[in-house]
Amino acid sequence: MLYIVATPIGNLKDISFRAIEVLKSVDLIACEDTRHTRILLDHYGIKAPTTSYFQHNKITKGEYIIQVLKAGKSVALVSDAGTPGILDPGYNIINLAIKNNIGLTFIPGPAAFVNALVLSGKPAHKFIFEGFLPRGPLARKNHLKKMMALDYTVIFYESCHRILKTLEDIQDVLGDKEIVCARELTKKFEEVKRGSAKDIMEELKAQKPRGEFVIVI
Ligand code: SAM
């Protein structure tokens, strides 16, 4: 059985009893980054062996993991944070498991976009999750324009390196419309800013943007 296990997006307490039970019982834990996941495993006294499974070894390591599963062993898949498969190579191994008729189940838990959507106070009955926006400014603005033509709440991820540029593009496309910018969700310095992209940009500039961001429009 392949267990897809959601792990915390910041606060180590955001993990289910079942997730801990599964991580303690499996033969192997496939981690996006073994050093990163080690912090969580040590915190909960989880001793199962780990192996790395990430963007650049997903083909060879994916085949290895399938062999382990076919030999009758159990494997848990975790990502650096949140739900495996949401913008990480989890998607590939899940598909490979399906093609190989391997049983799979999902132990639910956090995903950053859900936290941000709930905290945003924006309509949550109809939303689009966009992952990361295109990197080039023109492509990003065109994409934003397309999204704004839809009658949905739109959510996307952004890093601290690009947040100011992205907010600038949002301001160009949306003008003073209120948006929500959530940072460091579930962590000590969790912050949810509401206002025009320009206002949020000014505030962030003043404190030099740090951490991870989710934007809700
Ligand atoms: N699998 C993850 C999930 O379930 O949300 C997403 C992985 S994606 C590669 C990483 C991005 O998620 C970050 O760049 C950031 O935009 C967002 N993210 C992850 N943790 C976050 C947090 N604690 N606060 C705000 N955004 C976060």
Describe the overall structure:
- The protein is an alpha/beta fold and 217 residues long.
- It has 2 domains: 106 residues, 3-Layer(aba) Sandwich (Cobalt-precorrin-4 Transmethylase, domain 1); 105 residues, Methyltransferase, Cobalt-precorrin-4 Transmethylase, Domain 2 (2-Layer Sandwich).
- 40% of the residues lie in helices and 22% in strands.
- The strands form 2 sheets. Strands 3-2-4-1-5 form a 5-stranded parallel sheet, with helices on both faces. The chain has a 5-stranded mixed sheet with strand order 6-7-10-8-9, sandwiched between helices.
- Strand 8 and strand 9 form a beta hairpin.
- The longest helix is centred in the N-terminal third of the chain and has 13 residues.
- The radius of gyration is 19 Å and the shape is elongated.
- The structure holds S-adenosylmethionine.
- The site of S-adenosylmethionine (SAM) has 24 residues, from helix 5, strand 7, strand 8 and strand 10.
